[in-house]
Sequence to fold (318 residues):
Amino acid sequence: MQSFAQRLNDKALTRRAADVLQVNMGRYCNQACIHCHVESGPNRKEMMSRETVDAVLRFLTTTDIRTVDITGGAPELNPNFDYLVESAVALKRHVMDRCNLTVIFEPGKEYLPEFFKRHQIELVCSLPCYSQENVDRQRGRGTFDLSIRALQIFNRLGYGQPASDLLLNLVYNPVGPHLPPPQEKIEQDYKRELGTRFGIEFNHLYCLSNMPITRYETLLKLRGEYDLYMELLESNFNFATVDQVMCRNLISVGWDGNLYDCDFNQMLDLPIRDAKGKALNIASLSTERLLNRTITVGNHCYACTAGAGSSCGGALLS
Fold:
């Protein structure tokens, strides 16, 4: 396989001005999905501390970054989640929460839907398929039914409704080692199936390619599918996506405060480093230190640049 760096013709991929601060609050989660590149689950202990949350907030006050994208694990299970949300909203930032839907049924978390509404939080919710069989196979038995219940609760609060400014977006991941279908087409399928069967409405569907790292890489190798999947990604490399990849204008903050070009590099322990090779940390960061820096790439980057591309906001090209 040709390395991703070589595929770029050895042209460095550089950072632009950041407009999204993505904060990973830890790897603790009430689910353990087979495609999860974070390898999160109920037994993970990594959690962002209050001290690091405060460092994130101090950094925000020095920038004009408008969007705070909160992820995990299940970020809502971090005891500092509410504090981060409320503080970021008070700083007049747009806050997104990457929610697995079932977390609102965890003990003590029943208040979350009203909390989200009160603070006008944009929800980006994982629902890898509109079929129960596929969702439960990927995320665990009973997950689909709980996810549908959660979406109905959000709809009743006004999320995803045509006349509402409460945004509810869903995320699709392929069940197997293949590229997502065209985003516009599958969004129509989701809206038809979820609307007809359950009365559910939502704003947009984001299609993400499964990242062949960590837990999903292990699964692919156990099934003898890893090499085939990597060949598929490489053969569908689309140079037109490179200008749109999320790492060019996003800062990824790990649970310990270290900085990364993206959430995937974070899971591969590929931090942004200073001239002396030390990992940069949010506690001592200025945006000027990141502008025009070379982005760390690897063969996993083929997953973001294959076909129509893939990012935390879905396909890169229509």
Summary: The chain has eleven helices and eight strands. The mean pLDDT is 93.
